[in-house]
Amino acid sequence: MYNSKIIGLGHYVPENVVTNDDLSKVMDTNDAWIQERTGIKERRHVVRGDGDTTTTMGVKAAKIAIERAGIDKDDIDFIVFATLSPDYYFPGPGVLVQRDLGIKSVGALDVRNQCSGFVYAVSIADQYIKTGMYKNVLVIGSELHSHGLDMTTRGRGVSVIFGDGAGAAILTREEDTTKGILSTHLHSEGQHAEELSLIAPGMGNRWVTDIMEDNDPNDESYFPHMNGQFVFKNAVVRFSEVIVEGLEKNKLKATDIDLLVPHQANLRISQFIQKKFQLSDDQVFNNIMKYGNTTAASIPIALTEAWEEGKVKSGDVVVLAAFGSGFTWGSVIIKW
């Protein structure tokens, strides 16, 4: 048995910055309203026609992670790609990354666990490495939200939150089982699936021909729906539970955490968790203020920036935690 460890990180965000004041020009909102509720000041949006897609952003992040890992792309044995915004209905972006990076015909897996996607993807990569099946696994979280948001007053409750971007990590074998990823913890509660969802396009209850014929401009099923207060209440509970679960599994306490990197859903959630675990500002990394919620990309973007800023050091206990649509939630406990 092996552990797995992260040896390379990279991220990419579009150059186009969209501020709260920019949004106030297309919908009834303002900077104070958005910051008070979410902590977000700005986010990045792909500009139509500039060539960025969920896959290409993932590829750009992956190239940085591969270079920093000090490996060749052909050393990668497997690809795990987490996203809720794939380029195509099918195939998923995993195989597109394999093609665009020019990697040999390795396996490619797509993960559809939304805000928990990167945590789930890391858990999958970790298990493949621990069992000896693969040595080097490329894990990507990438999202292109902006093209699918309702950028009107009707959709402001959701649309002001989300941004575009990608993050990537290279995981490899670690023979010292006291280091690397110590454990991962995954959960779901599908009874609340519709509380944070995008119903269409979907094959569950409508034929494609019916959707094409309807062409109803008032059909809101094509835009994300979120019961904000309900999601918030569940998030703070599940975040806490899954962090405690991970700490107890490894006989650790909250005081042992050197850095918590939570999914960047809402700054108020992160602040609630920080207060609950009595962590200092230096022990929690947040960047939602400048990127918004980038769903599966948020943790790898934040982890990459934290590492670049010297906030992640050898021997540190690093905790990743996420909660989102599904509901799904999870945590990763790492001894860096």
Automatic annotation (TrEMBL):
Source superkingdom: Bacteria
Annotated stretches, region: ACP-binding: 264-268
Reactions that this protein is recorded to catalyse: malonyl-[ACP] + acetyl-CoA + H(+) = 3-oxobutanoyl-[ACP] + CO2 + CoA
Domain Beta-ketoacyl-[acyl-carrier-protein] synthase III C-terminal: 247-336
CDD domains linked: KAS_III
GO biological process, any: fatty acid biosynthetic process
Pfam family, one: ACP_syn_III
Residues in Beta-ketoacyl-[acyl-carrier-protein] synthase III N-terminal domain copies: 109-190
GO terms for cellular component: cytoplasm
Gene Ontology molecular functions: 3-oxoacyl-[acyl-carrier-protein] synthase activity; beta-ketoacyl-acyl-carrier-protein synthase III activity
Active-site annotation: C115, H263, N293
Signal peptide extent: none
Key word Transferase present: yes
Enzyme Commission identifier(s): 2.3.1.180
Subcellular location: Cytoplasm
Record pathway: Lipid metabolism; fatty acid biosynthesis
Keywords: Acyltransferase, Cytoplasm, Fatty acid biosynthesis, Fatty acid metabolism, Lipid biosynthesis, Lipid metabolism, Multifunctional enzyme, Transferase
Entry remark concerning the domains of this protein: The last Arg residue of the ACP-binding site is essential for the weak association between ACP/AcpP and FabH.
Protein family according to the UniProt entry: Belongs to the thiolase-like superfamily. FabH family.
Subunit structure and binding partners: Homodimer.
Role according to the record: Catalyzes the condensation reaction of fatty acid synthesis by the addition to an acyl acceptor of two carbons from malonyl-ACP. Catalyzes the first condensation reaction which initiates fatty acid synthesis and may therefore play a role in governing the total rate of fatty acid production. Possesses both acetoacetyl-ACP synthase and acetyl transacylase activities. Its substrate specificity determines the biosynthesis of branched-chain and/or straight-chain of fatty acids.
Protein name (database record): Beta-ketoacyl-[acyl-carrier-protein] synthase III
